[in-house]
Each structure stands twice: as C-alpha cells, then as structure tokens.
Amino acid sequence: MNASGSHHQLRKLNLRIDSIKDATRLCGGVYMYANHQGCDGGRLYYDGCCCIAVNGDVVAQGSQFSLKDVEVLDALIDLDAVSSYRACVSSFREQASHVTKVPCVKVQYKLCQTFRDGMIPTDPVEIMYHCPEEEIAFGPSCWLWDYLRRSRASGFLLPLSGGADSSSVAAIVGCMCQLVIKDIDKGDEQVKADAARIGQYRDGEFPTDSRELAKRLFYTVYMGTENSSEDTRSRAKRLAEEIGSFHFDVPIDSVVSAFLSLFERLTGKRPHYKVDGGSHTENLGLQNIQARIRMVLAFMMASLMPWVHSKSGFYLVLGSSNVDEGLRGYLTKYDCSSADINPIGSVSKQDLRAFLRWAAVNLQYSSLAEVEAAPPTAELEPIRTDYSQLDEVDMGMTYEELSIYGRLRKIFRCGPVSMFQNLCHRWCGRLSPSEVADKVKHFFKYYAINRHKMTVLTPSYHAESYSPEDNRFDLRQFLYNSTWPYQFRKIDQLVQDIDKDGKWVEDRRADSQL
C-alpha cells in the first residue's frame, strides 16, 4: 500500500506506472497506489490516478484529472495467484529453504470468502495515458478550479492579446468551464454547489452551459495601442466569443501619452522608437511603459468589475508568460506576466503550440488554429512596411533552442562550458564550434542579466522539471556576472583547440553526406 503524494508533471505518469508495474513484476505481489488529488494550496497539482497492480499487471486505474475531492477504486484479486507467481522465483525458493518455517495456527474462521460462481478476479486493463496536450488542458484546468473555489474568488480576469500565450490561458479557462458542466451533468452535487456559489446564481439555479458559465466568471481584456494589429484584435474577440467570456476592447494610447507627456515635462526629453531613430534604451523604455500600464489596468478591472456589475467578491488576474520567456527573461518586470496566478508559467512554447492545435479541434475553439499559425510578436513597437517586431528576432534565439537550453541547464546541470560541449555534439552537423559558442554565450548573457526577474515571477502551475521559478525548483542567486569571464574564456579556448584539430570539419562533412 502506497499512500503517495506525487505531483503532476508533463509525461510523468508513464514513469509512475512503470515503477509500480516493475515492482510487482520483479517479485510478485499486490500494489495498491493512492495519491493526493487537487491543488494543495500552492504551485503543485496532485493528479490522483490511483491504481491497483497485481504481478506486473494493472487491474484498476482511476482518473488522472478530476474535480472530485475523493475517488475510490476497487478490484477483485486472487492471492493464490500471487503465491504461485512468487513460487516461480528461484531466489525466493533458495532463501525460503534456509529460514525457519513460520508456525501456522488454524482457526475456525476465514478472512477471505470461499470460492463461488461470479467471483472472477479483475482482468488487467489497458493503461489510459493522456497526451501532453491533454495534460496541459486538464491539469491546469483542475488546478484553477480548485484555486477558484477555495480562494472564495468570483472569477478570473485575463489580459488577452490574441497571441499564443494568453490564448492558451483563455482556452484552459474555457476547458475548466467545460469540465465543470460535464461533472454537473454527471450528478456531482459538490461541483454544482461550488459553481452556483462562484457564479452567484439564484437559489435553485445552476449553470448548464460552459459558455454561460464563462460569461459569469471570466473577463477578458484586449488592451490595444497604436502598435497593435487588427489581426490580434480580431483573434482575441473571436476566441472570447467561442469561450463565452465577458470581453472588453480597451485602447490605452491616451494613458501611454499621459506618461510620456509627464516624463517630457520632468526631463525636457521625449523618447522615440528605434524605427523612428531612437536608441535601444529609448525603444525599451517605450515598450515597457505599455506593458506595465496593462498590468495596472488589469488589477484595477479585476477589483472593480464585480462592483460595476453589482456583484460581490473579487476576480483573480491570470498571467500568461511561458517557461521559455522566464528562462530567457524575455518579459517586462511587472507587466502582464505579473498576476495572481499563471497556469502556463512552466510550460514550454513548443508544448503550448501543440496544445493550441489540439484545443482548436477538441475544445472546439477554431480561432486557436489561426493563433498558432501566427508568428509570435509582442506588438510593442510600430509596424512599418519594412519592419515588424518578432519575438525570436528580439531574443536572438528560437523557442526550440530555448527549450533545449532550459533542459540542459536545469535537468542536466549544464553551465556555459558543459552546455557548449553538449551542443557541439548535438549540432555538429549544422553549426560550427564558433557558432555554437556564440549561441551559448548569448543565452547565458541574458540569463544572467534577467535572472532577477524570477524572484517576482507570478506563482505558476508546476508542469516542467526545468521550470526556472526560484520558489522551490530553481534555488539560485539572482545576481550573476553577465560576462562570465572564466567560462567564456574557456569556451573560446575549446573552440581554438577544435579548429586546430581539424577533425570537426571532417565530421561535419561526413554528417552532411549521410
């Protein structure tokens, strides 16, 4: 019997089930696995999925993601089958021959029922594994629902930009509403009572449609500026309609102008974007003020919109930065990444894009397909005929590369030098050692510069083992020497040694011919 407390991570259930099956396959036995279920008041979500295994086979499996507080699982097992299985293990027979036999005391009763018709041992079942896209949908959805009902909040507010990250969060909230309605339809009285309380329904009333429920407990806000495109505005509006959220389209140019006018009165100078001749510092400052205004407006609306609509309570602000942006520091400190909670803060961009494709079909939010196909952009700079801001260009690296850096840094404990050595082997067919060195240096430079942002990162659903949040999973200092003098000097020396050796060129030629 294992009364476990195993939290959810993407693709973790396979390892858990394999461990249980291997333990009983090795020496026989019955393994009853129980696990916590729900949000435990923090970043972790316990995904349940209790199971019973006999002699290497799983004979019963509970649900992995559920809104229920308790789930009971049972199976009929044959203890004689366990004895027979163990008797076939030669090492057990050898050990048993050298020990004193345990005395057997006969009594007038039996704990086990006698054999009769109908008592058929439970057959092995096929394990139900969710794909990563389903895990992203259901895990954070259940976590959000648990957080919402236990915090006594009235709903969520999300700054919805029409991009992949905020659209993913919106889809997760929509999925949460769908799960709630499904459980109500199945007769779950606790979920019905919680939904009626949170949605502030009249006595005897309760939600019957996910879109109608979303209208009561989910606000979405598109905060556009002169730099925003009609494409993102349209995508945000259509997604909000598909989910059913109460949607606002709020232009914030007047607020930005007010801040710039105040700054000009104080300093006598007015910053300009780089496309208009401004410096990098001016360009960054103009982007950051837009982002921070959105955070302030989001919290203001979350606290006052219930009052506007004559409702009680408060709304929780949802963040929408992903794990790769946190690792690179590609976010403004105290912008829309700063919120009450974030359901995707430890999910990679690559996984989120796969989730969007899945959700467009399985959650029936068709606009997500268009969101996924669009190039990632912050839309904080003016759009010109010859220039359009793109995330991967701004970062100097792709999201795919960021995922690789994140896993090497955290899971494989790689610093600059060991990461360079690892990537030299991994990328030898397409990049030279000097090119690999430049990429590694670029990543660690900005990792060091932006590490301080992780100290105020919004509490996020824990989904990846390489999450950079420093509350529990990445306890590191937040002040680094961004020039990494010893490490970068060592990398340069390794590049010179490889170039002198010449073997690298031969290996690359051989790889290109394969």
UniProtKB/TrEMBL annotation:
<dbReference type="InterPro" id="IPR003694">
    <property type="entry name" value="NAD_synthase"/>
</dbReference>
<dbReference type="GO" id="GO:0005524">
    <property type="term" value="F:ATP binding"/>
</dbReference>
<dbReference type="InterPro" id="IPR014729">
    <property type="entry name" value="Rossmann-like_a/b/a_fold"/>
</dbReference>
<dbReference type="GO" id="GO:0005737">
    <property type="term" value="C:cytoplasm"/>
</dbReference>
<dbReference type="InterPro" id="IPR036526">
    <property type="entry name" value="C-N_Hydrolase_sf"/>
</dbReference>
<dbReference type="InterPro" id="IPR014445">
    <property type="entry name" value="Gln-dep_NAD_synthase"/>
</dbReference>
<dbReference type="InterPro" id="IPR003010">
    <property type="entry name" value="C-N_Hydrolase"/>
</dbReference>
<keyword id="KW-0067">ATP-binding</keyword>
<feature type="domain" description="CN hydrolase">
    <location>
        <begin position="1"/>
        <end position="79"/>
    </location>
</feature>
<dbReference type="Pfam" id="PF00795">
    <property type="entry name" value="CN_hydrolase"/>
</dbReference>
<keyword id="KW-0547">Nucleotide-binding</keyword>
<dbReference type="Pfam" id="PF02540">
    <property type="entry name" value="NAD_synthase"/>
</dbReference>
<dbReference type="GO" id="GO:0009435">
    <property type="term" value="P:NAD+ biosynthetic process"/>
</dbReference>
<comment type="similarity">
    <text>In the C-terminal section; belongs to the NAD synthetase family.</text>
</comment>
<dbReference type="GO" id="GO:0003952">
    <property type="term" value="F:NAD+ synthase (glutamine-hydrolyzing) activity"/>
</dbReference>
<dbReference type="InterPro" id="IPR022310">
    <property type="entry name" value="NAD/GMP_synthase"/>
</dbReference>
<keyword id="KW-0436">Ligase</keyword>
<comment type="pathway">
    <text>Cofactor biosynthesis; NAD(+) biosynthesis; NAD(+) from deamido-NAD(+) (L-Gln route): step 1/1.</text>
</comment>
<keyword id="KW-0520">NAD</keyword>
<protein>
    <recommendedName>
        <fullName>Glutamine-dependent NAD(+) synthetase</fullName>
        <ecNumber>6.3.5.1</ecNumber>
    </recommendedName>
</protein>
<dbReference type="GO" id="GO:0004359">
    <property type="term" value="F:glutaminase activity"/>
</dbReference>
